[in-house]
Amino acid sequence: MSPSAVAGGTSNNEFESDLNLSLVGLGVEYPPFLVGPEALETLANRFYPSSTALKKVLSINRFTGIDTRSAIGDVDHPLVNQPKAPSIKELNDLFLKEGVRLSVNACKKAIKEWGGSVDDITHVVSTTCTNSANPGFDHFVVKQLGIKRSVEKILLHGIGCSGGMAAMRAAAHLALGSTYRGRPARILVMACEISSVLVRSELDSINEEQKTRVGVCLFSDCASAAVISNGVGEESGTGPVYELLGWKHQIIDDTEEDLGFDVDPLGWKVVLTQRVPTLASAAVSPCFQDLIQSVPELHKDSQLPIASDFDWALHPGGSLIITGVEQAMNLTPEHFRASYEIYMKYGNSSSATIISVLNKLRESEGKEHVVACAFGPGIALEMMILRRRKEASSEVDGSEQNGANGASSDDGGVLLNGAMNANGVAHTNGDSIGRGDATLENGHPATNGTTHGAALSGTDETVVNGASTTSSTGSPREGNGSHPNLPVEDLD
Length: 492
Known about the structure:
The chain contains 10 helices and 21 strands. It is an alpha+beta fold and 492 residues long.
């Protein structure tokens, strides 16, 4: 029950017709704060002198296509309001508190949906790129969840935004190994990122190097989790959320210098070049063609399906990545509706985002098969083919985060100063700036009538003039001239 490699390497992997691998539970936990674009401008004005580079970044920040970003605190959080940017020790201490808390809650949601016991969890596969603690954060999550000490744990690092999918891929291989041995596998997968508190470190670099660093405009905080089962010894229940049919991992040659997340005394620094959106978009089609040929279920008809026959759960690294893949694969915004909605409401939460997109996608009816796709440092491309359970959309409660579900700040007050309150209305010093939550209009993400102009390519990407974002109907469109042009060459 495992993929059998044939001559030629992993690009020619073929999967058996019934791997019997399923995602049986999903959980997503966003922190209670949603900060708008004005939060970055507030911090920049508080601590840094005006400069050409800073003005450019703040201009880009207004037109990312992101309405709000999830964060562990508002613009007045003490850690980002010190005289100096927080040290890596301070960041670690915060992650082991807030990141572990978010991860525990996400895992509890996934385990609850699965319906099993923590005593039945056989493996834990985790990932993060915003913490390097030893023991890793997964150790503390497992301890708080009460999972047995003998559980087999793997913590993946160095894979950035592709981490969530890489963790699921690793879990799938572990599950197949257990199947081969006739043993049950119930594997808890989790991803957690706390990026918002790196804002001062990034602003330091913008000020000191006078370079346009766009990551500061995009990153957000989230934890997500999934339970993967190999079906061995499984009692009949509600069935899978998604069945996992096949996957592919690929490195784009000679791109090591194009994309990264380097360790620094003040946290981590985004490394990216202007080539990333083009490189990433161009790699999707050949990877997709190889993958669908390796999945027997897709061969039932006389011809293979095409990209538009699938729903797409694309990691929303940025709007240019989404629209680039959309154009490369001849798709429509409807295919990426979940990616757009997560991107607009929460921003890019790196490795934790893809499970959030899959969770959002199942809330609405759609195509039977789903392509999940993400990019990470390397440049690495991760892709999976899944089959959704048709009735899953009617059973999910849609709960994703504290702040958007009616919860307020810890003191029960309304969140101000660039944050969003529990009703989804963004405020700055008490003044409303409009709805920030992404809703659906006729099945498309909407931004309450707000049209964004210039667009970012994403966490691991860059900015290109004329990239499309989301209009009031949810359909990407070109900038309408209401914003300054932001040419590629101005990013250096």
